[in-house]
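Changelog note: in this version the structure field was regenerated for every chain. One regenerated record is shown below for reference.
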Amino acid sequence: MESFFILSAWWIVPTVVAVALVEVLGRKFSVTYLQKAIGQGVSPELWNTLGVIALISMGVSILLSRFDAIHSFSAKIANKLLLVSFEVGLLGLGVIIGQTIFGFEKSQFLNWQVWFFGIGFVSMILIAILLNFILWFCSQIIYSQDGKTNFMQKTASNHYFFIFFLGLSLIFVPIILLVLER
């Protein structure tokens, strides 16, 4: 759990600082290139697609959990894809937080609008953090350099039907959710 917070801080804090710097520099210099880069840093489509690919790889790894030689390789791939998805999510969160804090003129809003926007913003950020936490958690339970994790050992010791159901669920549910999003 500690590594979740450390990784989150390493990605979110520098991103918020970078957005703040661009906002401050934008008042005196032309920073359109940097502003465009920041705008492209928030890509829910990229995060969703990477997350789906990562969860599919986790499902494949679970399906292969009884085949030690293949499973180790598939679990490592799933772990790396889940971590990349997690880190892309952190980058996007940092950009959104930075843009929200430093990108709006506070004088444009009435008091009630600030409170309303603030509650909605905090709620959406908490949901995004929860979804991102799920990616990180999955990366921790799917792979360990020491061998199979407790989760994978228990999964592999279950009946084939359970392994098949869990693996296929992790493959098809994310795909269905991604298709339904459009």
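Spot check on this record: DSSP finds seven helices and no strands in the chain. The chain has a mean pLDDT of 83.
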